[in-house]
Amino acid sequence: MSFLVLALDIGGTNFRLALADERGRILKRRSGPTRPEEGPERLLKRVKRGVEGLLSDPDMKRMVKGVGVGAAGPLDLESGMLLHPPNLPGWHHVPLKSMLEESLDFPVWLRNDVDLGALGEHRFGAGRGFQQLIYLALGTGIGGGVILGGQLLSGTRVSAMEAGHMVVSPGGPRCNCGREGCLEALASGTAIARRAAERLLRGEQSQLIEMVNGKAERITAELVARAANKGDRLAQQVLQEAGEWLGIGVVNLILLFDPEVVIIGGGVAGAGDFLLEPVRQAVKRWVVPYFEREVPVVRSRLGGNSNLMGAVALALDEIQATTS
Q: In sequence order, what are the residues at sequence separation of 6 or more whose Cβ sits closer than 8 angstroms to the Cβ of residue 199?
């Protein structure tokens, strides 16, 4: 091995670390709780202990050239500052890049976590071999990343594609951003759970109510997907509806970026074809007449590792850029 890189993925619940070689192969992993309520300084201490555990061999430490980091936006790419990420409440204008560099004593490259999900899928997952792709991550919200000409698309200062906040249904459900009718308010994991709970509270029948012991507020998108796979009609209908809204968003993105493939990741992607087939039907109906080919809509191949592998790819790219 000529050199090594570290990768860090900071989520609202947990952080994950990886040590990788120059070919992107993961050698070691560590993880721990984020506990955002304790503040960034306490997290950095846990991250540093995790890195020390990965680099217990002094020879390995000398081979590390830098750290790729993914964190939820919005963040300022120029300064490496987290602005006000919703899944890290209270973290306003945190200079994460400089804090990590001081703590770890390695160069740090910071990007939006879903952007890195797109990069990870492009380099190591379902997007390998494609030069133009769209990646959407469906979880509590909806994030997106775009690869154009083999390169990750960036905005002027922040992430280039806040796909979850495109308005697809004016006057629709209120989104966490304060507006109405955002894609995120109609097709995210949160929206799926909310819609299923609303129907149960109206008295509709579903095995979901047994799965949550009669407490509709405990329903999650993962439970809806599980019920759908067991043949539950209400769960299947909720996913169908979310998929139709998601399809409208995907159609708009295809018409904007003309990708070779659209990749759906995040926890909600576990719903599989119950969610993805309506998206494909929307693409077939609304996009194909304008294009010579149908754009495939596929599930993430890396699953929960998309962001972490994107952080690996980011570090490798930055090192290559500085040495070439």
A: 206, 234, 238
